[in-house]
Design a protein that fits this description.
Belongs to the NAD(P)-dependent epimerase/dehydratase family. Helices cover 42% and strands 16% of the residues. The protein is an alpha/beta fold and 319 residues long. Bound molecules: nicotinamide-adenine-dinucleotide.
Length: 319
């Protein structure tokens, strides 16, 4: 993969956490990038932070189809990385219509514009933490049954189905990556999404991390640079055998262990505080990543302690 160049790429959601990291990587490799983002959560500052500041930015809502099609046709991308999404699980439960508007209809618009422009490949983004059935084998392979608990998981899975429909009906070359819990520099430590950032910020402020429940719930934490690298690999793989691949570390880490590890990296002796668990929270989540590694030729993931040190270093710069 090293040295291979994608001449022109569109990155939807490219001003967000994962998207901006990918844009920075593409720019470093000499790719001309058009970011399509409505900046509802992302920012231009993210692009500057990751080295993606020279990318073109179209501030646009992917639900609005006409201008999206026009922009794709004018830019003529080789590859489209589709990361724009409504990512707030709780919002999806109270506003499933709004969630589906972005994640399903918006995705259809992106796949349609990509088809009309004749791109070489689309890399679609989904979630390994919210689509699989409760009680499936852990680590969970891509072949495990799906039955999302949340509206968010449902909309992401629906977008995967539409990707597959565009492939069959329109010949669109599209792959989907299902991420574990992505963490690392750039993730909003005040946000709802990232437990790593929240724990890091609290410990750095001399406060105890707050754990909902007993802390034995597990997650698969994957560094944002590994997620970006997986996108590049998915774009460049000459003939991937599978259309859906898990992107994670393949390691199951409990939330309690996570808090202890961050404290250890910091040399802090602050113990976590336990509060009542949140209903509906997934108990165990860890992805079987063997198929993705073989199919896409991925390198070994960054060890968690190194990724945590990296994240702490970044959060320190914010203070
Ligand atoms: N962060 C994780 O742990 C994680 C896990 C699984 C899957 N994902 C997926 O990865 C992708 C990126 O997530 P992220 O964590 O970087 O989130 P993020 O919120 O930082 O990035 C999403 C970006 O999409 C943009 N956006 C939202 N609605 C839009 C719209 N209607 N039109 C145009 N742009 C819009 C936002 O402004 C933002 O910049 C998403 O598809 C998400 O579902 C993330």
């Amino acid at each position: 993969m090293d040295g291979a160049v994608i001449p022109r790429a569109v990155v939807t959601g490219g001003a967000g956490f994962v998207g901006s990291t990918l844009v920075g990587e593409l720019v470093r490799r000499g790719t001309r990038v058009l970011v399509v983002d409505d900046l509802s959560r992302g920012s231009v500052a993210n692009l500057h932070r990751t080295g993606g500041g020279s990318a073109e930015l179209l501030r646009h809502d992917i639900r609005d189809r006409g201008p999206l099609k026009t922009a794709f046709a004018a830019f003529e991308p080789d590859v489209v990385f589709h990361l724009a999404a409504q990512i707030d699980v709780r919002f999806s439960m109270s506003e499933p219509f709004q969630d589906a508007g972005v994640n399903v209809l918006g995705s259809i618009n992106v796949f349609g514009a990509a088809t009309a422009t004749g791109v070489r490949r689309v890399v679609n983004t989904s979630t390994g933490g919210a689509v699989y059935s409760v009680g499936v084998r852990v680590p969970t392979p891509e072949t495990a049954p799906t039955a999302p608990e949340s509206a968010y998981g449902t909309s992401k899975l629906a977008a995967e189905s539409y990707a597959e429909w565009f492939r069959r009906a329109e010949g669109l070359d599209v792959l989907t990556l299902r991420y574990g819990n992505v963490y690392g520099p750039g993730q909003d430590p005040r946000g709802e999404a990232g437990v790593v950032g929240i724990f890091c910020a609290r410990l750095l402020a001399g406060e105890r991390p707050v754990i909902f429940g007993d802390g034995a719930q597990t997650r698969d934490f994957v560094h944002v640079r590994d997620a970006a690298a997986a996108n590049l690999a998915a774009a460049l793989a000459p003939a991937p055998r599978h259309r859906v691949n898990n992107i994670g570390s393949g390691r199951e880490t409990s939330v309690r262990d996570l808090a202890d590890r961050i404290a250890a990296v910091l040399g802090s002796d602050l113990a976590p505080e336990f509060v009542a668990g949140r209903p509906g929270e997934v108990r165990r989540s860890c992805l079987d990543v063997r198929r993705a590694r073989a199919d896409l030729g991925l390198a070994a993931p960054l060890p968690l302690d190194e990724g945590l040190a990296d994240t702490l270093g970044w959060i320190r710069t914010l203070r």
